Amino acid sequence: DSGVTQTPKHLITATGQRVTLRCSPRSGDLSVYWYQQSLDQGLQFLIQYYNGEERAKGNILERFSAQQFPDLHSELNLSSLELGDSALYFCASSVGAEWETQYFGPGTRLLVL
Amino acid sequence: AQKVTQAQTEISVVEKEDVTLDCVYETRDTTYYLFWYKQPPSGELVFLIRRNSFDEQNEISGRYSWNFQKSTSSFNFTITASQVVDSAVYFCALKLIQGAQKLVFGQGTRLTINP
């Protein structure tokens, strides 16, 4: 158990809908990272937050947004969903901001029908 | 633009053999991080190592070792005396330390260790 939790584990929704994925980092970790893994795009980095502030941005679509709250949990919001958004979404956390050892959650599997 | 190439799509070896996974990267920047991640059949991701571009020393962690060579832009990963539990997809990745902060992954190498 990495200590990083993600909810929900599975999510099935329809095109055009909006969903929110949640991530709770390990106790004491200030950074949260979001990744997407799909058959088409492979593994991609989406975004990093450190202590509530956006720190690094990857291939995150404009339809997607994220934030990190004062209690350090993070949410990834996906809107106007398309079939191609079906993927495994991972969250990871680390103590600092410099991409040192990251601990991954189990992932949220999103299926868009 | 940054790029990471893992030319070996799949590797299959017999248990106890040594195996090296290749990773070649492209960047014009001089300051960057290199990473390796493991994804076992169960699907979770496991962080293995982060290497700073300033530090070209090889690293060993148990049966795992990493060879970083700036001259050839490579960051290869060797598993010594492989075990069935090493079976996984392994990803190499590159991230610039300054400027664009995007992390770029290779396509991954699927390693199968046969008993």
Any overview of this molecule?
The complex is a heterodimer of chains A (about 110) and B (about 120). Chain A is about 0% helix and about 55% strand. Chain A is mostly beta strands. By secondary structure, chain B is mainly beta. Chain B has strands at about 5, 10-15, 20, 25, 30-40, 45-50, 60, 65-70, 75-80, 90-95, 105, 110-115. In chain B, strands 2, 5, 6, 10, 11 and 12 form a six-stranded mixed sheet that branches. In chain B, strands 3-9-8-7 form a four-stranded antiparallel sheet, with no helix packed on it. In chain B, a hairpin with a 4-residue loop joins strand 8 (about 65-70) and strand 9 (about 75-80). The mean pLDDT of chain B is about 95. The interface of A and B includes residues 55, 57, 59, 88 and 101 of A.
Greatest interface: A-B, 23 and 19 residues
Sketch the topology of chain A as an H/E string, one letter per element: EEEEEEEEEEE
Q: In DSSP terms, counting alpha (H) and pi (I) runs of 4 or more, how many helices of chain A?
A: 0
Largest sheet of chain B: 6 strands, mixed
Bin the strand percentage of chain B.
over 45%
Derived structural class of chain B: mainly beta
User: Describe the biggest sheet of chain A?
Assistant: 7 strands, mixed
Helix content of chain A: under 10%
Number of helices, where a helix is a run of at least 4 consecutive DSSP H or I residues of chain B: 0
CA radius of gyration of chain A is 13 Å
Which spans of chain A of ≥5 residues are poorly predicted at pLDDT below 50?
none
H/E topology pattern of chain B: EEEEEEEEEEEE
In helices, the fraction of residues of chain B equals under 10%
Question: Any chance you could write out the topology, listing elements then pairs?
Answer:
The complex is a heterodimer of chains A (113) and B (115).
Chain A: E1 5-7, E2 10-13, E3 19-24, E4 31-38, E5 42-50, E6 53-57, E7 64-68, E8 74-78, E9 87-94, E10 103-104, E11 108-112
Parallel strand pairs in A: 2-11
Antiparallel strand pairs in A: 1-3, 3-8, 4-5, 4-9, 5-6, 7-8, 9-10, 9-11
Chain B: E1 3-5, E2 10-14, E3 19-21, E4 24-26, E5 32-39, E6 46-52, E7 59-61, E8 64-69, E9 74-79, E10 88-96, E11 103-105, E12 109-114
